[in-house]
Amino acid sequence: MSLPPVSFGTSGLRGLSDGFTPDVVFAHIGGFVETACTDARSREVVIGRDLRASSPQIAALVGGALTALGWKPINAGAVPTPALAAYALKRGIAAIMVTGSHIPPDYNGLKFYRPDGELLKSDEEPIRAAAKALSEASPDFEPFLPHEDPAARDEYAARYTDAFSPHALAGLSIAVFEHSAVGRDILFNALEALGASCTSVGRSEVFVAVDTEAVEPSAMAQIHEAMAAGQFDAVVSMDGDGDRPLLVDAGGSQVSGDVLGALTARFLAAKAVVTPLTSTSALEESGWFETISRTRIGSPYVVEEMARLGADGIVGFEANGGFLMGSDFELPHGRLKRLPTRDALLPVIVVLAEAAGRDVSVGDLVAELPARVMRADRLKDIQPDDAGALIEELARSAELRASFDESLAEPKTIDTTDGTRVITARGDVIHFRRSGNAPELRCYVETGSAQATQALLSAMIARLATHLNARGNR
Known about the structure:
The protein is an alpha/beta fold. Helix content is 38%, strand content 22%.
């Protein structure tokens, strides 16, 4: 048989949920354990899932496939991705997270963790090749999951309640926008355990895709409604699988993920920061860090670069706010062990704890970075080939760029490392990129003010839509 259109994206295997058939799941699970798990301490694989409607069924297929392949599944249940990763890394075993992260509800995915951490880009081709071979002779097997083990969830919560003072957030009033995030209860309980007073808002029993880089107006309206209804110091949340944070300050402004990352890295006294091209240039302007290394977009690239640097005091983060720890860090109250995968809980706790500890607002902390503001948005349901062709043309054609904005006609630089990234003569950044996880065309804009960034971003999204409509691509 030929494999259906389920494929590796920026970070993990993604596709429409009905594409994760028994044959497809068996082939890719087999390819993973055969090629990437040879150094596992045991033939155990821990399985987690998000709260999508399709995730329990796919998780059971994963468990059944592992059993048929002679491996023992451990069922962690509905847990955040970083909780699953931490559990597996501590034990030197593999992990598989069933999640589509922030992409639409009818999609889903598998995120693989080797016994030594996150799957790397170099692992994907061997898995694809092995999966193709296995797909020709997939056996019949029964979906299966053993009784749920809460250890991954409990250890993840303790990771932070043990490392921070129980009074770290004392005096803060926090609204937790829970929606359908798998980590919503852990987030709420952890903040309260550290001294905050928390109020639940927006909880949904139907899966809602929340992209922390481009929050839907309906979700932001719920957040602003919560702010108006109470005297909160912040509203916090995370995406569907708990590896991307969301924080809105008391004034109703979202703190972008790269700013959360910068503040978290400073709090930890990190020496080296690894982050993709799209993170704010305020990092270099701040002078806070000895080394800043830029990568392509995607946590596997960040993980690889952290490993290459190979020294103490290394962290990574993405523009979506997912924070990675390449080293252990000592805090006044406890020790944080390395966790080289995206995590949403740490940056939320750190920024709130620093605000509480210094008796300043979250907005005051943000203002300590040089004034650079990045925002992102995207067009949905864009065919990858159409998005790719337009991005390549924008790199080549000054005339096309000028039709978007005159400042793009003769820019200071054009970088095609990951999409088309243009820096104008006045220092504004406009980055067009095809999503690696979903049929979306993304745009990232950075300027010196929130107002200018939003205006330019809105204009770019409108130009993209007009251009694609004129070509009949939408």
